[in-house]
Amino acid sequence: MSAVEVPQGYMPARFNCTGMPSGYQKGVLWFYDVLPSGVDLNDELSLIIHSSRFDRLAVTFVYADGKTERQGVRSGDFGEHWRAGGQLAFRAPQRDARLVGFIMRFDKVASARLLRMRLVENGEEATQTTGLAALVGAALTLLLVGAIYNASLALTMRNQFSAWQASWAVCMIAWGSCWSQLHLFFLPWMAGAVSAQICTGLSCLAISLATLSAVTALDKSDVAKWLRGLALGLTLAVSLLGIPISLMRSGPIDLLGSVLSLAVLADLLVVTCCLGQAWRRGSLSARRFAGAWAVPMVALASTNFFDADAMFWGGGSQILVLFAAAWQTLWLSVAASRSHARLKMERDLARHAEAQAQELARRDVLTGLPNRRGFIERSQAIMGAAHDRDEAIALLLIDVDWFKSINDVYGHDAGDAVLQAIGECLADHESASCAVARLGGEEFAIMIAGLMDMDLMNFADGLRTQIRDCRHGERIGNRPVTVSIGVAQSVLIADFQALYRLADEALYQAKRGGRDQVSVRSLDFSEAGPDGAEAMILLK
Questions:
Q1: Distance between CA atoms of residues 322 and 139, nearest Å
Q2: Is the backbone of residue 345 left (phi > 0), alpha (psi -120 to 50) or beta?
Q3: Sheet harboring 45-50: ordered strands across?
Q4: Residue among 61, 47, 48, 45 nearest 121 (CA)
Q5: Taking residues 276-302, what's their average pLDDT?
Q6: Mean local confidence (pLDDT), 303-321
Q7: Bridge partners for 437 per DSSP
Q8: Are strands 87-91 and 82-83 parallel, antiparallel or unpaired?
Q9: Which residue intervals of 218-283 are DSSP H helices?
Q10: Whole-number Å distance between alpha carbons of 61 and 97
Q11: Residue 526: is its pLDDT beyond 80?
Q12: Distance CA 163, CA 137 (A)
């Protein structure tokens, strides 16, 4: 029975309930019920009412002796009556007289159709409340983990999809907190109509964000333009419908709610079509989304076809939606992790291949030693380090004597074998302060730091002897292979080109002096004048 606004504490003398209630949005809505015959009247009972939009709620318990006990809440102050899962609990006081019924008075309730209530034992009420709080807490924790993870991906990877997903997860967390009333621990003044209105707005926003994240993640070539436009249009419609419904306290709320439900179902159907079309066209994103969207779609759609309100200790469809949202967030987080891991692996492989290509570009294919390009880069580093430590540097140019005759007499394969053997001899001297290379043809080079004068001459002559003593076998008829070495050393000047010119002059002198010998020159502008070159010694 509905009535116009009446003073607080007023109660009708009798009830005559016929037809559908009307006029209650700006007045008072009364509910009267007697206890079912199967209820054990010795049990302590609790009346559970699911929170909705109303200004005040008064619950009066009626006893057999005609006495009544009254409890009440108002919007903005639920006191100790609120419970997790968007519920209010009113415990019937124990009296000698038996409880025969209860009366509920709702002031300015938005919709009678949305009201849900049940009568349970006190012990059962505590158990259900604890279980429901645990379910809500688990779902919100999973959503929080997904939100943090996707937000970190969005920031580190500059990923638009992860940003949409993180926003959606945050929106669902806010909705779940408001619906379950857990936010009343910190914001008790939001109890009642304010929270219910915010929940409506957040639910519409969450659906819009979920649709946008799915549609924008699919390539434009994988989804027909008109289908994508239809999905975005329905998303806009859900958002626009959500605004007035979330603000309304009276008016055609039930009608607009039905229209909104149809818009949500249509939106889900169109998103399903988008995913299906993209899947058929080979989209990996669509396959990833299909698994993530399957559970939320079924959960949201099912709430429109069967009554789930009695499930999960009264949590009903909202619990289904919360866990479906958590499933979607975690599924997409795992999918994003796998995708990013695959991209990282591909990137690492590409970088490795690039590094290998760059290394090969700096290596001589025949001997495996650095080529001229790689040698110059290593030499610059060695010269810079030696200059910082005030160490001497030296460049050795090594040329194989009479190499053309080896190719002419024994063939190029034999000549390549000789070059490989010499390369193996020189490679043993590669170190942090010594760079070895094949510059081209039969010419090799060594850049070394920390040796000068006699130590340098002994090192160079040791190389000459080592190469001469190397045996190349029957391929060249046991013929000995000798080299000429031109050495340029410097203490004050770290100039590769100047050293190279001087070492080339020293090599020419070694060739002219009869080959199989070492010629050493120094580069010192303070002693050698403008040319900076002074022949020091010729070793045979």
A1: 6
A2: alpha
A3: 82-83, 87-91, 45-50, 117-121
A4: 45
A5: 75
A6: 64
A7: 445
A8: antiparallel
A9: 225-247, 253-280
A10: 12
A11: no
A12: 24
